């Protein structure tokens, strides 16, 4: 382990949900760009393997933190590690999240509330933990992973879509609030992307969307788009032309029509 003096000299990026998918790719990009890493997820083994690869490729030091951010003590566990090592987090990537497809009244209530705890509560709490230090240093970047789901309500994935609407609204508001204080907040809004997301979201019902009628994104491309937007301090980024068209078109579409469209896409393909 590095000494505290060595660790303090580095620029740290914290990535939640770094054990797979978009978070894993964002961690690899941040390492390439010279950041030391704090990697957070429940599964530590894939993060240890990633940390080893990034150490060999770029000499990146990583702190691996196994934490369930959906649990009440999750954020405290992460922040304890950060504070004990006296790390200044320059980049926070709030990426950990999951979705669930199926009728609201049939999905397990516990899993629905877990979605709120992870996608909303942990994201807000981690942001609240790191922003005061960023403001004091007048330097910091927050990248919150929302979704194209943020642009309209989503029948048969109602709770998930609502959590992502929260992430987009919260991030855009903070982006404006922090203007001129050296800290930017960016919302990354991917469309359907090939990761482990679909397997978990389709545990109860597999939506048509997951068969790719609108195409599917690549986690590396999504992560690169997120990183570029973060560096430029953009408020929102929607990777992919079709997704950008959708994000532009949906707010102009009458509610009844957009509900029908998302209902069709989220309904079971069977
Ligand atoms: N894939 C898509 O189509 C898509 C589209 C739009 C937005 N997104 C968003 O992109 C983000 C990343 O998802 P992904 O597509 O990369 O999916 P993924 O491959 O399933 O990755 C999700 C990550 O979140 C972590 N995670 C899940 N539950 C957690 C918990 N309770 N505590 C801590 N970490 C937890 C997972 O790690 P562990 O399981 O090891 O904890 C994993 O590293 C999510 O916020 C998702 O909503 C995805």
Descriptive overview:
By secondary structure, this protein is of the alpha/beta class. It has a single domain, classed as Rossmann fold, CATH 3.40.50.720. The protein has helices at 4-8, 21-32, 44-58, 74-84, 109-137, 158-177, 197-201, 219-232, 241-249, 255-266, and strands at 12-16, 36-41, 62-66, 89-94, 140-145, 183-188, 193-194, 217-218, 236-237. The strands form two sheets. Strands 3-2-1-4-5-6-9 form a seven-stranded parallel beta sheet, sandwiched between helices. A two-stranded parallel ribbon has the order 7-8. α2 runs parallel beside α3 (44-58) and α2 (21-32) packs across α8. It is globular. The model has no long low-confidence stretch (mean pLDDT 95). The chain binds NADP nicotinamide-adenine-dinucleotide phosphate. NADP nicotinamide-adenine-dinucleotide phosphate (NAP) is lined by residues 16-23, 41-43, 68-70, 95-99, 118, 145, 147, 190, 192-193, 195-197, 200.
Bound molecules: NADP nicotinamide-adenine-dinucleotide phosphate
Distance between the termini: 52 Å
What is the CATH fold-level name? Rossmann fold
* Beta strands, count: 9
Order of helices and strands: HEHEHEHEHEHEEHEHEHH
From the spread of the alpha carbons, the general shape counts as globular
Relative helix content: 40-55%
Based on secondary structure, the structural category is alpha/beta
Give the radius of gyration.
18 Å
Q: If classified by CATH, what would the architecture be?
A: 3-Layer(aba) Sandwich
Question: Largest sheet at a glance?
Answer: 7 strands, parallel
The share of residues in extended strands comes to 5-15%
Task: Outline the low-pLDDT stretches.
Answer: none
Q: What is the CATH class designation?
A: Alpha Beta
Quaternary? single chain
